[in-house]
């Protein structure tokens, strides 16, 4: 049976019953025997013991784990996140988990409760930042998401029977529509940055809607004949340990045709790089074959581009405009020009048309309004062509 029923007499004279369950040995070879007392009748203790034995036999009884939440978080990062995720994603997970480990890191993993986690989240929302202000709902929801996934792994590893993060409640994330520039606004931004070192980068990005890392990893071997297209197949990622190349998001490889101004830009960039290569000689990084790079042919750090674009946009009079705005604008402009949703989704490298529809719902709504107007115009046109046929009079 591997379980024992026992009786105890309390100082008050009251008799209580309990059980002891043998569930094996821990990592150090010490036998683990969890107990529970407080049953008024022997029968109640026997029923509870039988239930626990059934759970043990079904593999549902979890051995108490002595490690703390901080120790488990570190184990999860090194044994799961850093293996299954990209280095950049693992870094973000570590930063988000740090918010929780600072608060309850010393708590034994098996004793972490829903209430404890909820209080951590509430504190982050109220005054979680160093200056005493609260984090955004989106940030705290992201923290909760990582904690939930980590503790779900603890359940799979047999360290927890249930995930205490499951029942936590957080405010819904506010919907914030991304900024998209129309054709004239995008042109104004490009013209205002014509003399900037990022001018060619912005022109090409506005013409193909690439992500930041995808543009910085673009090679001349990815450029089609006569500079008419680019094939996006990889991305440059910046981590604390340095720069690395990785696959595109969703591993979607796509070829994007280019308009004439982007073709002319590529020709100009190639001519300029040929001159730089002559000047740098053997020190030029021709091995990288980069389209958008430093004069030495080396990689440009992604964060350098992000900061520079924000400054350019602000100088041009645009608020809340970032490098990603150009990608978002590219998709919106295509849809407003009547390009089918499936084609736009493919050009952007989305995992599905549904993703594109969700991201660009604002553009689709305007298309819906235009469709109604066209339908109504067709109805009126059809009504004006109706020919009345007189009814025949009855004879007799």
Explain what this protein looks like in three dimensions.
The chain has 396 residues and is mostly helical. Among the domains are: 3-57, no CATH class; 69-156; 190-313, hpI Integrase, Chain A (Orthogonal Bundle), CATH 1.10.443.10. The chain contains 14 helices and seven strands. The longest helix has 24 residues, at 361-384.
How is the topology of this model organized?
Elements: E1 3-9, E2 15-21, E3 35-39, H1 42-57, H2 69-84, H3 87-104, H4 114-127, H5 137-156, H6 183-192, H7 199-208, H8 212-216, E4 229-232, E5 234-239, E6 242-247, E7 254-257, H9 260-280, H10 302-315, H11 323-336, H12 341-348, H13 353-359, H14 361-384
Antiparallel strand pairs: 1-2, 2-3, 4-7, 5-6
Helix pairs in contact: 2-3, 3-4, 3-5, 7-9, 7-11, 11-12, 11-14, 12-13
